[in-house]
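We store chain and fold; thus.
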Amino acid sequence: MLFSRIQTIDLILIKFQILICGNFAKPVCKFKSSDTVKSKTKEEMASHSKTKSNYKSLMKKGFFEIAATLLHRVKSTSQLSDEEQVLYDMCLCRLSFLPPIDLTNDYCRILSTSQSIDQSMAPIVAEQILRHLKSKMFNHKHSKLLEYFAGNELFTLYLQSFFNVDISIEHKIRELRTTILDLSNDVFSCNASYYNLAVSLAIQACHSDYILDISEDELGKLATLEHECREKETDDYFEKTCFIKLAMYLPPTENLKQKFNSINSKTKVERKLSQHIDERLDYLGDANTVPLLFSRGNIKERAPVTEVKSQYENYPFPRWSNVLTSKSKRTFREHMEHRESSNKSISVPDNIDILVAGCGTGKHVISLAERYYYSTITAIDFSATSLKYARMKVDRATYPDIEFYQADILELTNWERQFHLIESVGVIHHTIDPIRTLKVLVDLLNQGGWMKIGVYSRLARRYIEFARQVIAEENFSDDIEGMRAFRNFVLKSRETSDLRKLIHYADFYNTNHLKDLAFNACEKVFDIPQLKAMLELLGLEFRGFQLDNKRHLSKYRSIFPEDQAGINLDNWASFETENPDTFIGMYQFWCKKK
């Protein structure tokens, strides 16, 4: 995941533009009240149409912060049209930093009503929460702390929607759950806002896969609670309060979960907790529900492959709830003609056959189903648990023509399928032999077919590589206790140390994600000269990087105006040297079979 706090000069300039946008970027037309809309002149309507076009242009260029600020100004004086509301919400879901406006009510509305919120929104919502929190003072007894957060709608929605990604909020979560753990059951059960906050903290624990450390004192109190749960089986309400306190810290047992589910008349937030707990226990249960693509009779398991497979069986990645979509589905040909503006002869059918090689828990698969018209999507992975997670998500979304199979990519050498598009993002760098693995995939491509590949950048990954060295030197185990101990080690490190930079990675705040980030059983990193040599060897033509932050591409084009298509890898190598965090997520790039 992205390094959430990195800010380059161009981001600072954008912030400056927003701060002064009142002087130079006022909307062409402001909405009036609904009673006077009909009286607008044709000239006003034309100006309004032009303004909407400007919003779309800003969004297309990646300037979501400016577009959101302008739309917020329109909203403050009148009601947004349906189209503008959609544009505004799209901006809010894609902000890289928080503009100098209060978006609390807007995010409360989105998180409480939208079904397409995504974990990528967590940093910006966290920043909005912290902006208000900085003005608050709490006494040493924590009573004001508990009262403030119990009444903070955005905070509780944040806990229910994402796993936390901010260290300051983590400290508050730990304080809150300790305070609630110490509350008497009488006080706890009689205060609905305290109880709902505790349920939200239990949902958050499930979201984060129980990454937070537990003190010896807390462990003792939790043991007492577990005993009380067993002893007080006839007192349903008392049992429920004990259950919620336990669930703030530990994954519930099957027995306790059944007791909680048997309680009638659950509140909305209680039902949400039940759903998350059921889902977690479901995908971690018997995972042999996805068919093998090939019989394993003659397949010899290789030790590193077995270790990586075991990792993703026990720690499926990524953990996700929804997919953030653009709501603009189109054919792959249309998409590539837009990307390849200098080439309007993309030779692919409207409905294509897609292979996702290494689909993990299925988020990538659903994003493709949302983005393109397709004939079939075939998704493979060697982790049965991850595939079960993916299958569960896809079945709920009712996507047709998506086939899941369990298979190792290297098993596909004799497969008689051909695909127009193959995507393998975040996979190749976890294989024993990346070139051999890619060669298998290239052989499955139609002539002139397209590939999207994602691998780690050695330069951008430098802090993670350092962390992996520390883990080896300090001999941290790769189980939950070892990962918690490592996190404590990071938090106690010097503020200026390279190790401390890990707290700015969203993956630091979830067990499964931290396992993938720093404890991966097999990981390789690349540089751009290696990519260039690899593509030449495999007969692939480089067709440009997929950059989530479009400002990097704008900056590249300003430095290398002769390469507006951004396909000169030598130039990109030079650019990355000067801008080492450009590919902080990974290199994601398009290539075409020659």
About this structure: The first strand starts at residue 330 and ends at 331.
